[in-house]
Amino acid sequence: MPESCAVAAESINKPVVCKPWFVYLVRAANGSLYCGISDDPVRRFAAHQSGKGARFFCSSPAVALVYVEQHVSKGEALRHERLIKKLRKTAKEVLAASYKGVPVQVSINERDVVSST
Fold first, then answer.
1. 3-state secondary structure of 68
2. Which of 18, 44, 51, 92 shows the smallest number of beta carbons within 10 Å?
3. What is the C-alpha to C-alpha distance for residues 3 and 73, in angstroms, rounded to an integer?
4. Structural domains in the chain, sorted by start
């Protein structure tokens, strides 16, 4: 159980069900991929399509939700989002191609991460 859920459960002595967080990839009309997190990726994708949310889609609108993975906490989702953003474009395309419409769990190989040096 994530730490924040455990603290909440202890303070009220009731079982707490944590809301899952998701990392997602959205394809823009120009072919680029946008990575983000949300507690409801379908709602967030709809916001991207309507022009609300990320400025990323001002120049090229969102056309498809191409990848979603589920995490137990917002912190875990943020950490994984950071890893995905460091991936090479080809590795992100592999993630998008692997998506079958159900949130997945994946491991990221270090060789796919672009070094920041």
1. strand
2. 51
3. 9
4. 3-105 (3.40.1440)
